[in-house]
């Protein structure tokens, strides 16, 4: 939860977030109506069409918005390394002056994602890079995104989205997603279709398959082992499975799925396509050396999730989720997921009046929809010394009734934060312990918050999987996290001298 993003008050629109990743109206609409762009035009590797000035302008305008929405650009040697690999693989597209035509950005984001927009803008998150095992896998992911640009998939998605009149369907999406069968699966704030979101709509399976094929061809052309596309997809599928295990299967919200179809279904196809293609380079040691020390997980500047606890050392507050609930931090909100309810913690403009703040937060839930939600009353209270206000609105949906609650806290005369939660009617009290846990933190407690990082270590004689996993900077799932991070299984054998990744402070 980024303070700078939260404090851009005036006309900022808060988006629904899916496990901390941006979920646009377009993505929600296509989840209801099916994927767009079912067919794709042939694209020959090495013969990418020239980018138009309109494409370049479109990408340049969206780029700053995407940086803000995904935590900003990660700087330093890791970012420089990702950029070099990305521009090297982009040369395989055949676009004239590709090294300068493509802009490759490492995002300071704790979600596993990568995407591309028109104009040659390619993005990957540091979290996804940390999941990779070698440079070839990095090149494969970036080559896949270059393939989306070369095939003009974003433009196809925009055309289809416009044809489906997504902007005119906000009310239907609200009632069908927020208040219908998926009422407990989608809770948030104002639904907004902005330019940068339209550029990152979900790909169709045929588009995804075509980008995989192009990425594999680019890998081979650059001398990398083309099998790396299938291995990185396999790692991503394993991470998604672990996320689902930690969150509970009913709460599975793979980050990659916000803009890409399931990676598990594409592993075998990518492996088969790579068979017989030239290329053997992996550059594992160079890759591990490059990412050693890179931040992993939450950035303290955006707050830290630690199990069911959230602490923000910059905004100086903390809270605890109910038992059995799972927290995921995003740049603009913290999502809260459980079997009996969903919610998020976020912020909006604050003028010093908590009553009007709560009313405005309820209005954010429905956004531009004609169905407005407001509580029958707003109550005042104090929580651990913080002035607070709250209200609950019971809403009729096609499948019964749900309770939407806004619980707001004044952090200062010009700053407030609030929870938005949604439960089945009569169950709003399941979040009471969370509401009452909100508290200020001291300067010493704030200064003690540290970032996690990737630490590349060398296996010593006698080391075991569990022994190394015990060094992971987590209180739970130590072994499972270590295995997925290194593409290992419980049957894997460690060799002295082997390099592996762990997460430390």
From TrEMBL:
CDD domains: LysM. InterPro entries: LysM, LysM_dom_sf, Mito/Outer_Membr_Metalloprot, Peptidase_M48. It comes from Croceicoccus mobilis. PROSITE patterns: LYSM (PS51782), PROKAR_LIPOPROTEIN (PS51257). This is Metalloprotease. Residues 455-502 form the LysM domain. Its cofactor is Zn(2+). GO terms for biological process: proteolysis involved in protein catabolic process. Keywords: Hydrolase, Metal-binding, Metalloprotease, Protease, Signal, Zinc.
């Amino acid at each position: 939860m980024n303070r700078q993003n939260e404090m851009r008050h005036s006309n900022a629109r808060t988006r629904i977030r899916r496990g901390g990743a941006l979920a646009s109206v377009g993505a929600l609409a296509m989840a209801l109506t099916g994927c767009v762009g079912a067919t794709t035009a042939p694209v020959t590797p090495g013969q990418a069409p020239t980018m138009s000035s309109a494409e370049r302008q479109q990408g340049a305008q969206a780029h700053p918005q995407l940086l803000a929405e995904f935590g900003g650009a990660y700087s330093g040697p890791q970012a420089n390394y990702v950029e070099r690999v990305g521009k090297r693989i982009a040369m395989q597209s055949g676009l004239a002056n590709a090294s300068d035509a493509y802009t490759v950005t490492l995002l300071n984001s704790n979600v596993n994602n990568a995407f591309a927009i028109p104009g040659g803008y390619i993005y990957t998150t540091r979290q996804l890079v940390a999941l990779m095992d070698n440079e070839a896998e990095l090149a494969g992911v970036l080559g896949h995104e270059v393939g989306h640009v070369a095939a003009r998939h974003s433009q196809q998605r925009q055309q289809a989205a416009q044809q489906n009149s997504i902007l005119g369907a906000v009310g239907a999406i609200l009632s069908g997603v927020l208040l219908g069968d998926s009422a407990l699966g989608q809770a948030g704030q104002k639904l907004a279709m902005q330019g940068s979101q339209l550029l990152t709509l979900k790909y169709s399976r045929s588009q995804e398959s075509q980008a995989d094929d192009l990425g594999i061809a680019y890998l081979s052309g650059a001398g990398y082992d083309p099998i790396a596309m299938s291995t990185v997809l396999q790692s991503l599928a394993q991470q998604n499975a672990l996320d689902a295990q930690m969150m509970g299967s009913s709460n599975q919200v793979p980050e990659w799925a916000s803009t890409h179809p399931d990676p598990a279904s594409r592993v075998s196809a990518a492996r088969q396509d790579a068979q017989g293609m030239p290329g053997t380079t992996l550059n594992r040691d160079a890759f591990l050396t490059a990412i050693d020390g890179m931040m992993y997980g939450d950035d303290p500047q955006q707050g830290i999730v630690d199990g069911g606890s959230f602490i923000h050392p910059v905004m100086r507050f903390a809270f605890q989720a109910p038992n059995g609930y799972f927290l995921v931090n995003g740049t603009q909100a913290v999502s809260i997921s459980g079997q009996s309810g969903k919610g998020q913690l976020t912020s909006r403009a604050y003028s010093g009046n908590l009553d009007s703040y709560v009313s405005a937060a309820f209005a954010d839930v429905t956004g531009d929809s004609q169905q407005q939600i407001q509580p029958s009353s707003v109550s005042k209270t104090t929580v651990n010394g913080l002035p607070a206000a709250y209200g609950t609105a019971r809403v009729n949906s096609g499948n019964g009734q749900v309770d939407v609650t806004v619980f707001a806290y004044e952090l200062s005369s010009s700053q407030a934060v609030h929870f938005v939660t949604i439960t089945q009617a009569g169950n709003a009290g399941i979040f009471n312990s969370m509401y009452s846990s909100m508290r200020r933190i001291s300067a010493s407690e704030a200064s003690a918050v540290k970032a996690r990082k990737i630490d590349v270590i060398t296996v010593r004689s006698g080391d075991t999987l569990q022994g190394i996993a015990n060094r992971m900077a987590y209180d739970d799932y130590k072994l499972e996290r270590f295995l997925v991070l290194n593409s290992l299984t419980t049957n894997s054998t460690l060799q002295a001298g082997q390099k592996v990744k762990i997460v430390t402070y």
